[in-house]
Amino acid sequence: MRYIIGIGGVTNGGKTTLTNRLIKVLPNCCVVHQDDFFKPQDQIEVGEDGFKQWDVLDSLDMEAMVSTVRAWIENPVKFARSHGVNVTPGSKEPASKDIHILVIEGFLLYNYKPLIDLFDMRYYLAVPYDECKRRRSTRNYTVPDPPGLFDGHVWPMYLKHRKEMEDSGVDVVYLDGLKTRDELYNQVLEDIHNKLLNCL
To answer: Interhelix angle for 129-137 vs 155-167, to 10°?
Structure first.
């Protein structure tokens, strides 16, 4: 059985932290990080807001990302081995009963139709403006944030994309990013275990 879980939501909401904990405990689990699909810096356009447009779909090679996910769907064992993930042999049950999980993590997972349709479960981390801005200010990025980027581009794009997602009726489970890391991890892990058991 193949199962695809999305961990999406606001920048600095705790997506990567949660993802990294989940992939350590879920069986035969691989991960795809949306951040790995950013286009080169010289291909990122400057928008009307005066900032390089990093927080929009056009800054990402979404076709390559979907191709990567489809490669996992086609052969999760081969994908896992090529990404250094140990695959545990299944029980004596038929191979179709073996569980393989892909966790996809990123800030714009639910705004690209070819990707939206591939998820079995979609989680969405949200934190309020003040906390998001505080967390963002403590991060060191390869391309540092220029002054005013958060208020002038990052937060407005987050609100725009979240509204688009909600208006299109994407079914997500909202997670409160203000909860402790343990609370979020336990909530999502329990939810995944319950859903997987119901599918067996």
So the answer is: 130
